[in-house]
Amino acid sequence: MKPITSILIAGLLFIALQLSGQALVTSFTPATITSPVGSTVTLQFKVTNFTNISSVQFPIKYNTTSLQYLGVNDFALPDLGAGNFNSIPAQGAVRFTWFPDPAVNPNGVTVPDGTAIFTVSFMVLAQGASLVNLSPSVAPSIEVIRNGVPITVSYQNGGSTITGGSGGGNPPPSTFQVLANTIFIPKDSIRCMPVTVNNMTNIISAQYAMHWNTSVLQYQNTKAYDLPFLTASDFNLPATPPGTLLLGWDDEALQGVTRANGHKIYEVCFKGIGAVGSNSLVTFDGVGIPAGSGGAEAYNV
After folding, report:
1. What b/e sequence results for 148-184 when a residue is b if at least 16 CB atoms lie within 10 Å of its CB, and e otherwise?
2. Which of 153, 249, 269, 278 is 20 to 30 Å from 294 by CA-CA measure?
3. Alpha-carbon Rg of the chain, whole angstroms?
4. Cα-Cα-Cα-Cα dihedral of 229, 234, 235, 238, to 10°?
């Protein structure tokens, strides 16, 4: 009987620890936001009762009809970076998994109430409201560990509702788009970021500039070209400002090129030179294109 009693007491103690600990409270800020179609919105993910936390995992859900996930930034936890996030567009989810180095943080991590531990950005694709929040419906399940014990996460009233309005902002997403994609680069290693397209229909030329943080990323080369007549000679580096790569491409056959949404048209390779946990946004615009050459633009047939 003693072994049975000892197991029963351990089980009761485990439940008591779960119930007695304060729940981790999460919220996206602002709670409501209205922004024009084509614009970018950034939400802060804030926490309360984030005390002695040794690991976190949860999926962030959003409506892919209304929003397009762009990336994460402004990390405020040790060992937290873009590599802790995995975008799953088909499920309208971004998976987040994090745990700090236990040798450095043997008692977990504690931050003040109301701390924004990261920010997440979306492009508004359509008019109407879309909720961004944690969800138990997508793996991995919502799980937070404090002192070796799972605790409750209070998120039900912590979502953010993004409402798309009309007019203003960037060109609507029905137009040709070029997209950077999130990758993880171990320090002093080289990895290649796919550049993908949406709504590429009968395009015969395109030019634009790509930018990155030179203290975090060191440019290496482009490769894996998948447009007719696209070669390394179509890219111009160095350019102004630093951390700029120019592209000028033409379909010399003048037939027009069509690619499926999400199709990779080339890759850009970088070496990770920043501190561990650092990150760099990669953006596209017309900054750096010589005067008189037009801005960021594309033409169809």
Report:
1. ebebebbbeebbbebebeeeebeebbeebbbbbebbe
2. 269
3. 23
4. 160
What sign does the dihedral 128-129-132-136 (CA atoms) show? negative
What are the tens digits of pLDDT across the range 49-79? 999 999 999 999 999 888 988 889 899 999 9
Over residues 81-87, mean pLDDT:
89
Cβ-based neighbours of 209, under 8 Å, separated by 6 or more: 239, 244, 245, 246, 247, 284, 285, 286, 287, 288, 289, 296
Spatial distance between the Cα atoms of 284 and 67, rounded to a whole number of angstroms: 19
Please state, in angstroms and rounded to a whole number, the distance separating the CA atoms of residues 193 and 272: 12
Taken as a whole, the chain contains a residue count of 301
Integer CA distances (angstroms), 175 to 199, 202, 206, in order: 6, 12, 13
Q: pTM value?
A: 0.55
Amino acid at 276: V
Q: Give the three-class secondary structure for 6.
A: helix
DSSP state of 233: G
- Residue pair 185/277 in contact (Cβ under 8 Å)? The answer is no
CA distance 95 to 136: 11
C-alpha–C-alpha distance, residues 192 and 84, integer Å: 18
CB-based contacts of 233: which residues, under 8 Å, 6+ apart?
A: none
Half-sphere exposure of 161 (CA within 13 A, CB side): 8
Strand bridging mode 160-165 / 32-36: parallel
> Residues 211-267: pLDDT tens digits?
999 999 999 999 999 999 999 999 998 777 889 999 999 999 999 999 988 889 999
